[in-house]
Specification:
Length: 444
C-alpha cells in the first residue's frame, strides 16, 4: 500500500533528498563492496551496536552513486527511528517498498538498506519472497544481534544471504580517524600515545572522534547501557538486575576462562545476586548474540572436549572494559590480549580462533586455516622477567610439537627479534606493529 506519510518520515535520511554524512571511509568498505556487487544475494552487515554499520551502508550507497547510479536508485530506512515505531508491522516493508517505487523509482535497479531490520516482524519472509521474485534490487540488511541472521528466522534466507561482520575500528582505521598517516610510523615512541588511547578508549567511531576524555567515558557507559537494555532486556524480556550484574562480573574477568560454574563464583566474590546455572548458561549465549563478548573455545580434535572445557572471554572493545571501573594501568597485559583476540576474530574469523591448554601450559591463541593449524600466538606485555619469557616460550614449543605448527609468535610491548629455541624459531613483534603489519606492507 502506498503511504505518502512514510516517504515524509524517511526523506531527510536519503541521498535523493539531500547529501548525507557518510563519515570517514574505513578499511572494510573495499571488502564489503565486493559483496554489494553480487546481486544474487542479500548482504547482511552484523555487529555490535554503534560499531559503524549505518555509516558503512551510507558509504556503500554513496559509492554506488559515484559509480553512476541516480540518487533515486537508493533507499535507506532505519528501523530504530522512533518516528517509525507506529508503522512496524508485518506489512510495513511492502508499504515502504511500494511507496518508494511509486514516487521515486518505478522500474530501475535499486540499492536498498534496511538498518536494524530485526525490529520488523516477519522481515525474513518478505525478503525471501522478493529474492525469489528476482526483484530488481540489492537488499542490504543490518542488525545488532545475531538473532536476525541465525536461528529459525534466518533459515528462510539459507543460500540467499552473505554475512559481513563489522567490529569497532581496527587500529589502522583508528589512526586514520586521528589523521595520523602510517607513513609517519618510525618507532614505537612515535605511535605509543595513540596505542595507549586505543587501548584505553577503544575503537567505537563516535568515541574515537570525541576529543574530550570525560565525554568519551560518558558515551562508553551509555553505549554499554544501550547494549544491555535494547539488545538484551527489552528484546528478550530478561530480568534487568540479573543480566546487568552478570555483565559487570564478566567484564571484570576479560581475557580469562569462563563457564557457568566460574560465573557463579564471580558473582559470589563480588557479593552480587545468585543466578541459577541454567539462567547463566542462557545469558552467556545472549551476550554472544549481542556481540558484547567474544568467546574462544579450547583447541581439540575431540568435539566433546571443545564443549566440556571453559571458553576464554573477551570484550568486543577495550573502551567498554575500562569504562566500567577496571583500572587501566593494572590490566595492561590483559588489555593487550583482548585487543589481539578482537583483531584475530576480524582477520581470521571466529570459527578459526582457539586457545590451547594442557595440564601445565597454555597458549593464548591457536589460529586454524582450513584443517591445519596456521599459527600459535602468545601475548606478553613484559618479557624482561626471565621466568615469564621461559614460561611463554616453553608453552609455544610444546604446543608446536603437538599441533605440528612451526609458525610461532609472541606479541610484546616493544620487543622485536627472532630466535631459535630447541630447534623452533620464535618471532617477537610489538603489538602496534602486529596490528598494522598488513597496512605497513601495502603502504610502506
Amino acid at each position: 500500500m502506498v503511504n505518502q506519510k512514510l516517504l515524509e518520515i524517511i526523506a531527510d535520511f536519503n541521498f535523493w533528498q539531500r547529501k548525507q554524512d557518510a563519515g570517514i571511509p574505513r578499511e572494510e568498505l573495499a571488502e564489503v563492496l565486493k559483496f554489494a556487487d553480487d546481486k544474487n544475494f542479500v548482504l547482511i552487515v552484523a555487529g555490535v551496536r554503534r560499531s559503524g554499520k549505518t555509516f558503512l551502508c551510507r558509504q556503500i550507497l554513496q559509492e554506488k552513486i559515484k559509480q553512476g547510479i541516480l540518487p533515486e536508485q537508493t533507499l535507506y530506512i532505519n528501523f530504530e527511528d522512533p518516528a517509525l515505531e507506529p508503522y512496524l508491522n508485518t506489512n510495513c516493508l511492502s508499504d515502504f517498498y511500494e511507496t518508494y517505487r511509486h514516487n521515486l523509482n518505478k522500474e530501475k535497479f535499486a540499492y536498498i538498506v534496511f538498518d536494524e531490520i530485526q525490529n520488523v516482524p516477519n522481515w525474513e519472509k518478505w525478503i525471501r519472497i522478493m529474492i525469489d521474485k528476482k526483484t530488481k534490487a540489492k537488499f542490504i540488511l543490518t542488525g545488532s544481534s545475531s538473532k536476525f541472521y541465525r536461528g529459525k528466522q534466518a533459515e528462510i534466507l539459507t543460500g540467499r544471504g552473505l554475512t559481513f561482520f563489522l567490529f569497532p575500528l581496527k587500529f589502522a582505521d583508528f589512526l586514520k580517524f586521528k589523521n595520523y598517516s602510517l607513513k609517519k610510523v618510525e618507532s614505537s615512541q612515535s605511535i605509543s600515545p595513540l596505542l595507549v588511547e586505543y587501548l584505553e578508549f577503544g575503537g567505537f567511531p563516535l568515541i574515537v572522534l570525541e576529543p574530550d576524555q570525560i565525554k568519551k567515558q560518558i558515551y562508553l557507559k551509555e553505549l554499554f547501557d544501550d547494549i544491555i537494555t535494547k539488545d538484551l532486556i527489552v528484546k528478550r524480556k530478561l530480568r534487568e538486575s540479573d543480566i546487568r550484574q552478570l555483565a559487570v562480573a564478566l567484564i571484570n574477568q576479560f581475557s580469562a576462562l569462563v563457564s557457568v560454574r566460574r560465573s557463579q563464583t564471580f558473582l559470589a566474590d563480588m557479593n552480587l545476586a545468585k543466578i541459577s546455572p541454567m539462567t547463566i548458561n542462557s545469558y552467556l549465549g545472549y551476550f554472544a548474540s549481542s556481540f558484547l563478548f567474544l568467546f574462544t573455545p579450547i583447541f581439540s580434535y575431540k568435539a566433546k572436549e571443545v564443549i566440556r572445557y571453559p571458553k576464554k572471554l573477551y570484550c568486543v572493545d577495550t573502551g567498554l572494559i575500562n569504562s566500567l571501573g577496571v583500572r587501566f594501568s593494572d590490566n595492561i597485559g590483559r588489555l593487550y590480549e583482548n585487543i589481539v583476540a578482537k583483531s584475530s576474530w576480524q582477520r581470521y574469523g571466529k570459527d578459526n580462533l582457539f586457545y590451547w591448554k594442557n595440564q601445565t601450559k597454555e597458549v593464548d591463541f591457536v589460529v586454524k586455516q582450513g584443517r591445519n593449524v596456521f599459527q600459535l600466538i602468545q601475548v606478553c606485555f613484559n618479557l624482561k622477567v626471565s621466568k615469564v619469557k621461559e614460561r611463554e616460550t616453553s608453552a609455544l614449543i610444546e604446543a608446536s610439537g603437538e599441533l605440528e605448527c612451526a609458525n610461532l609468535l609472541i606479541i610484546t610491548e616493544n620487543f622485536e627479534t627472532q630466535e631459535k629455541i630447541k630447534g623452533k624459531t620464535i618471532k617477537y613483534l610489538p603489538l602496534w606493529k602486529w596490528l598494522l603489519q598488513d597496512r605497513i606492507i601495502r603502504e610502506g
